[in-house]
Structures are given as C-alpha cells and as structure tokens.
Amino acid sequence: MKKTITLATLGLLSVAALPSMAQAPITVDGKLAATEVAANGYQLVGRDTGARGFGDAGVLALYAAADANNLYFFLVGTLESSATEIKNSLQVFIDRPGVDGIPVGTALPLPADPTSGPATSFQKMNAKLDLAADLGVAIKGTGAAGQVQMGAVVYTPGTTPTATAMVASGSTPLNAVTGAAFTVPASTTGTFAPFAGAQVAYLTSANLSSNPGFATNGNAPANGLEIVVSRSAMGIPATGGQVRIFALQNNQDGGFISSDYIPQGPADAANPGSGADFTAIAGTQAATLTVTASGLSIVTSNRNAAAAALKFGVYPNPAPAAATIDYVVAGQQNVSLDVFNSLGQRVRTVASGTQSGKQSYPLTNLTAGAYFVKLRVGDQMTSQKVVVE
C-alpha cells in the first residue's frame, strides 16, 4: 500500500484546515508519477546524461518540491542489484539557509566508526563539495536482497569540523521492492532533530536500463529515491530561503564516487573516485532552490547562465600562446579566479579578494593542454574550458 504524506499525517495541520493550503500532490513511494510533476509538485533540478561509472546503475535526474510544511526530493536512479543484494549508495547533500556547513572546498569530515551495527555510506565520504553542506541523506544496500537502509549525517564546521552519522532506519530496512516508506520518529531530538518526521522510500529496478524513466533520461514515470523532510524540523523559515542541494552515486562506504552526479555531471567524466574535489570540476556542482512560503523555484545551476550574468569570457580559445579573461562584478563582491589543469589540480590563482566593475586579466605562460578557468563571484560560480596550443 502506498503511504501518502499529508499535513494531517504529520500532525501539523487539522483536517478541517487542509483545503485552504496548497499541498504538493506527492505520494512518498519511490515512484515518480506524471501527476506529481506539476505546478505545485516536483520540478526538474537537473539530469545526468554522461557515461555510467558503475555499469548498468546510477542516477538520471533530480527533482524538488515544497509546500507550506515540507520539502521533497526525488532522485531518479537505480543501485546495482542482484538476486542476493543491493550494492552502492545514493546520497543527497543539503545546505540550509542560515545554517553553517562545511565550507566550500573543504574536505568533508568523516564520522566516527560505529561501536555496533552497520555503518552509513558517509563513513569514508571525504569529498570537497561545491556547497556548504550541513546535512546529508542516503540509502545503501543492507547485504540482503531487495533491502536498503536509510543513513543520515550532520556536519558541524569549526576549527576541527565534525560529522555525526546514524543509520536512521535502524533494524527496520526499507523494502526496495515495494517502495514502502520509512519514517524517522517525529520525537527525534538532539543532533538529528532536523530529520524528525522525515520519510524516505526507494523503489528498485533490476538495473538502470529497466528503470521506467531510463528511455526519457529521468522523466516520469520513473523509480528511485524519494525523500520528504519537515520544514519546521529543518529550521527553514516560514517565509522561505535558499536551499542548495547536490546528489550523487557512491560506493557502499562512501569512499569511491561514481561519475553519476547532479547537477552537471560532464558527459565524458570519469569516476571522481576517492577524495573528489567538485570545486575543480567544470560547472557549478550544486543547485539552488528558492523556497517560498508555500513552494519553490529552481535557480539555474547552468554555468552558461552564470557566465552570461557575469559577462565572463576567455579568448581567444583555442589560445596559441596567451589568452585574456574578462568579467564584470556587480557592486562589491568577493571574487576568486583560478586555473585548473585537466586533472583537477589548481595551477594558478589569478585573482582573489573584493572587486567591483569590469575586470580583465592576461592568461600566459601555460604549457600546451586543456585547462578550466573557474570564476566565483559571491554566490555565482562558472567556469570555461580553454585549450592552450
């Protein structure tokens, strides 16, 4: 039986008051239905159209929705599955408004090893993200057929950043065959209070190519990971705010990332693997959601849109020997301008600090090869590939 999240179910609103509220038309069951992708329902955040890093498994698309009481996320995808077990993990990282997370470009701290029971897929996840994540939600196989477990992590910044993880589903695994939802107790307090009342469902397929959404690269109908969290538990103001998210496929313990990530997994990307640095990968590897009092809108994470807003360009390209970098900073904002080689290694910092107005820099003395010029102005990030001949 499908389990539908309603405001009354969560004890947040009386039944009599329901008709006056705009509620997202979403059933939490691991199925993305066409009726759920609506004006007040799921909106497309991004897709992964690249090669599959872990064989016939991975992610296709990411959706988000909001109503007056909840945030919803749907990651269309399928983990490796066999007759005996489900492998790998799907992870969603969240950067909440007004909450300090692990600074962009800082390796995620690792949670302490569990004293008993299974570990989460965050156990070895030490990537550098393009958002200041303060929370993470994930599923991974339990070692049994048709079962996954929900994991959660809370990140705390500081001189020595920390991570605290838990197997939220405990001894009650999620049934990946039926898509039955697991509910975190509404009474949850302390470190994991942001997940109080959260629900997670995952519906598996035999493999990614048999996922109903495969042929359309993630359009409904499709199967995958579905998450709903309470706005009040998450500390999202009633008026809303900006929430940033990033989703990916990882291995069982989180120590080796697949090439499947959203937004903007490059079409020719290899697996980032262990210790990945998403700030050094072309594009903005996070999506921004503008959450309102009763819904949300997707702020494009497309680097082309950011480039247009910043009037960012590198020319000539290809560059026979030298190139010029131009951009415009509106007002006074913090700026960083860096050059990375094709291995993702920073080879030069061109500019760093507060700037205003039109900027222009020469790009010289680089050996022949491909480079990525990455520009960050305030919260806007973009990059451009340049070939030096």
TrEMBL record:
Residues 314-388 form the Secretion system C-terminal sorting domain. InterPro entries: Secre_tail (IPR026444). Residues 1-22 form the signal peptide. Coiled coil: none annotated. The keyword Signal applies. Keywords: Signal. This is Secretion system C-terminal sorting domain-containing protein.
